[in-house]
Write a structure and sequence with these properties.
Length: 303
C-alpha cells in the first residue's frame, strides 16, 4: 500500500472514479438529448434524442452499483434519502440520481420505436403513460437538461468538497468534469448517429468541449501555482511529479488533443474511422477521473 495514501481511502481507486465517469457520461448524453428537444430539432438529431439515451439507464445502474460497493455501511444507504442537506455534495448527488434515473428509463421507453419500429405497448396503463410523456416531452426535456447539468457538475464537486486534499479543493473541478462528461456524451452520440450531418455536428461540439477542457486545465494549474505552498505542491504532482506522464500523455495527449485532431481531419474530408476518436475521448474522460482520484489522495496539507 502506498504510504502517502490514507488506508481508508484506498477503496477510492476504482469504485468512485468509475461512478463519476459513468455519471458524467450519462449526464452528457441526456443533456444533448433534452437540449435538441427544447430547440425543436429532434427530427434532425435523432441519434442524440432517440437512440443514444437507450444506454443511459444501464450506465446509471452500473455507476450506482459502484457507489454502493464503496459504502462502508451498506445496509444504511437509505438514510441518504431521509433528509436533504443543501451543503452536502453527497445529498445533492443522491437526490439528483434518484430523480434522473427513472427519467432516463422513461426517456428510453418513449423512444423505444427507434430500435423496434413495430413496438406497441400492450398494457393500457403503460400505453397511457407513454402517450402522456410524449405529449409533455418539452417539459420533461427541461427537467432533464437541468438535472443533467447538476449531475455533471456534481461529479467534480464531490471531489472539490474534500478540503483536506489541496488538489481536489478547487472550484475548477465542477466545470471541468461537466465539460468532460459533455464531451464523452457527444462522442458516444456520434456512434448512434446515422446521418453525416449529425456526426459532423457532434464532432464540432466535441472539439469545442475539448478546447474548454484544456482551457480549464491550464486555468486550474495557473491557480494552483499562484496559491499557497501546499497547492503548488499539488500541482507539482502533474508538473514533474509522479503523475506528469500519466496525466499529460493519457488524459491530455491521447484523450483530448489526439481525438480533437482526428475530428478536425474528419471535418476536412479525411477518412477517419468514426469509432477511433470516440474511444479516445472516453479513455481520456475515464483516465481524468482515475488520475485525479489517485493523485488527490497523495495531496495533503502540511502540518
Amino acid at each position: 500500500m502506498n504510504p502517502n495514501i490514507d488506508p481508508h481511502l484506498e477503496i477510492w481507486h476504482w469504485h468512485i472514479p468509475l461512478y463519476l465517469f459513468l455519471g458524467g457520461l450519462a449526464a452528457g448524453i441526456l443533456f444533448f438529448a433534452a437540449l435538441y428537444v427544447i430547440l425543436g430539432k429532434e427530427d434532425k438529431y435523432r441519434g442524440a434524442v432517440r437512440r443514444a439515451p437507450i444506454i443511459v439507464p444501464f450506465l446509471l445502474v452500473i455507476g450506482l452499483l459502484a457507489l454502493f460497493l464503496d459504502l462502508r455501511h451498506k445496509p444504511y444507504f437509505w438514510q441518504l434519502y431521509t433528509t436533504i442537506k443543501l451543503q452536502s455534495p453527497m445529498s445533492w448527488g443522491a437526490w439528483t440520481l434518484m430523480a434522473i434515473t427513472p427519467i432516463s428509463v422513461v426517456w428510453s421507453a418513449i423512444h423505444i420505436k427507434a430500435f423496434f419500429p413495430k413496438w406497441e405497448w400492450k398494457n393500457v396503463i403503460l400505453k397511457d403513460l407513454n402517450e402522456f410523456f410524449l405529449k409533455n416531452k418539452p417539459g420533461l426535456a427541461w427537467v432533464t437538461v437541468i438535472l443533467s447539468v447538476i449531475l455533471g457538475i456534481y461529479t467534480g464537486i464531490l471531489f472539490s468538497a474534500f478540503n483536506a486534499r489541496p488538489l481536489w479543493n478547487t472550484s475548477i473541478l465542477g466545470p471541468l468534469f461537466l465539460a468532460s462528461g459533455l464531451s464523452a456524451g457527444a462522442a458516444v452520440i456520434i456512434l448512434f448517429s446515422k446521418t453525416k450531418e449529425e456526426i459532423l455536428n457532434f464532432a464540432k461540439i466535441d472539439i469545442l468541449l475539448i478546447g474548454i477542457e484544456l482551457f480549464l486545465i491550464v486555468h486550474m494549474f495557473m491557480g494552483f501555482l499562484a496559491s499557497t505552498q501546499v497547492q503548488i505542491d499539488a500541482a507539482s504532482l502533474f508538473l514533474g511529479g509522479p503523475y506528469t506522464a500519466p496525466f499529460w500523455v493519457f488524459v491530455v495527449g491521447i484523450g483530448m488533443v489526439l481525438p480533437a485532431i482526428l475530428e478536425v481531419m474528419k471535418l476536412t474530408k479525411f477518412k477517419i474511422p468514426t469509432v477511433l476518436p470516440v474511444v479516445l475521448v472516453l479513455f481520456g474522460s475515464l483516465m481524468l477521473r482515475f488520475i485525479f482520484a489517485y493523485a488527490g489522495q497523495m495531496s495533503r496539507w502540511l502540518y
